[in-house]
Specification:
89 residues; mainly alpha; single chain; 0% strand
């Protein structure tokens, strides 16, 4: 049966190309990889997908070049004001 296989025109690599993606080799710390594997398993996605999403979030900024910040909460604002007033008074 194996004599019937002809791989003379075969190519190495992914069977289905992924447009817009590039295969690279990168060295990451074991604890970082484990962290993303745990996150990925909990969400049912691949850990490389989670790493890609984290890198995208870290590099994507809206127009104007500033990172998106969460709005400050009332409790946090009160704490900041108390600290500032304590320093002044």
């Amino acid at each position: 049966m194996r004599k019937d296989y002809d791989f003379s025109k075969g190519k190495r690599g992914a069977v289905i190309p992924s447009p817009g993606k590039t295969r690279i080799t990168i060295m990451l710390d074991d604890d970082i990889i484990e962290h993303f594997r745990e996150l990925a398993e909990a969400e049912g996605v691949g850990y490389q997908t989670k790493i890609n999403a984290a890198l995208r979030a870290a590099t994507t900024t809206p127009k104007g070049g500033r990172a998106v910040e969460k709005p400050i909460t009332e409790a946090a604002l009160r704490k900041i004001l108390r600290e500032e007033l304590r320093e002044v008074g």
